[in-house]
Amino acid sequence: MAEYDLVVKNGTVATADDTFHADIAIRDGRIVALLDDVPAGAAREVLDATGKLVLPGGIEGHCHIGEPPFGGAELADDFESASIVAACGGTTTIIPFAGQQEGKTLREAVDWCHERARGKSVLDYGFHLMIADPTPQVLGQELPALIEDGYTSFKVFMTYEGMKLEDMQILDVVETAQEHGGFVMIHCENDHCITWLAERLERAGDTSPARFGIAHGEVAEREATHRAISLSEVAQTPVFIVHVSSHQAMDQIAWARSRGLPIYGETCPQYLFLSSEDFARPGWEGAKYICSPPPRDPGNADHLWRGIQNGVFQMVSSDHCAYRMEGPGGRKEAAGELHFHKVSPGLPGIENRLPLLFSEGVMTGRIDLQTFVAMTATNAAKLYGLHPRKGTIAVGSDADLVLWDPEKTVTLTHAMLHDRCDYTPYEGHTFRGWPVTTVSRGEILWHEGEVRARPGRGAFLPRGLSSAVRRQAA
Ligand code: URP
Ligand code: ZN
Ligand code: ZN
User: Taking residues 342-366, what's their average pLDDT?
Assistant: First the structure.
């Protein structure tokens, strides 16, 4: 009988620390050896990775899958299609959100999401919680019990009707996180500024998609980011700033980190590759680019790249939130009219996250391979309590790998993608480098254009403490 189930041979392996040549031997879904040369016949199956990079599979720490309608439109993908889409883009773990609905418990939200993922997801998955109603019952009983059960991170919002929390409530959530080992993620936009600006634009009858960027201006994001940092400092608890879009907000994080505060942050491809010029396109074309916070002026992206290079950001996540434009449940029908605040906010992007960052980061020399791996996999594994099982290539880790062809050039059309959306914001973009094979726990899910994934094979991942929380406690 063969010693190994699968061997990935002749590849160049890259982790967040190192690049080296090794054959990767896999048994029972785990990496069991890294060897110079595994003899032919020692494995049931061999993947030849000659000329390829072998990287830890991506960990998507920010995606919206299977959530109830948000702002009217319905998400295009369910757990089956979204996880296949992710796998085709080189991702092997997804952590979507279980969002508390008004008047309902967090446990109900979690059960609802499990129901949607079970039997469908091809990838391993965890859930962040979203806390909309931090009652004494939620903070005193539900949240501690859910942290214990492996839901160790949770998002709160400073804006959105029905979701936004006041500062006192956020402090209560942060305090609960401190007492029970949770990791708080914050959506930072000043709700009063947004509402005030939106009402002024409405009074002027100026509601085209481009005005989304005015209502959700940089100042609103900068102020809220600074406030979130202050709340973290007051409660002496780490905080993660999600989907940072502007260099002004980024500068707040840089300032906090330079003072030694435990503030962490992510940015997203839409802030690196899109700009305010995209949602200024005429009519419904512009509406395709509405997301919150919005892409900023051209020139902003250069600052964000510097934040990736110098460690202000720990993750580049997609914030995948894919709505169709057309048809039932699509953005047009749900909005009823072309109005910047009636169009459900969110962009598709899980399949392009790694290819965009590789092509425009690694292949241009903006970042090295180690930073790429850290930003797409290892840091998410650490900050979301999955390391070293996920996010690295090491003996004992799950065999979650992506084989990357750095020579492959792809000019994107939406038809090439695997989602149920009806557009990609990156239509016509030419990528240098592409994920050609994705392996999850030793199973090949995606190989040279063929989807082999079996729906329902993905397992729920109860997560441990965030590295940020452990560092703070030490
Ligand atoms: O526009 C966005 N980002 N939609 C998803 C919801 C969120 O705030 O992450
Ligand atoms: Zn958000
Ligand atoms: Zn989001």
Answer: 97
